[in-house]
Amino acid sequence: MSFAALSQETRLHIVRILVVAGPGGMAAGAVAEKAKVSPSNVSFHLKELERAGLINQRRDARSMIYTANYDGLGALIRFLMEDCCAGHPEICAPAAGVAACGMPAAEGKRVV
To answer: What is the pTM of this model?
Structure first.
């Protein structure tokens, strides 16, 4: 279900927006604005991402706040890396390092 949710370009973009937003998350309207989609369109995509376990939602007064589900995203990354490199984990080490939150990628750039 996670792969199906992320296979759609707008949903992948929304997940990236929420990862960058951090644990504080963003209101649905702000996500729509940042993703450059209509509020009704973003609601559809947010629902699909939540159903796939990739994002969380919480109510804050009258707003719905959405955050990346770091546990769910981490599980997806672990699944992808589980059988990596035919018994040569040193090959996967750079990718595993980048997957760690806040770790810089090559040349000092952060991967988002």
So the answer is: 0.78
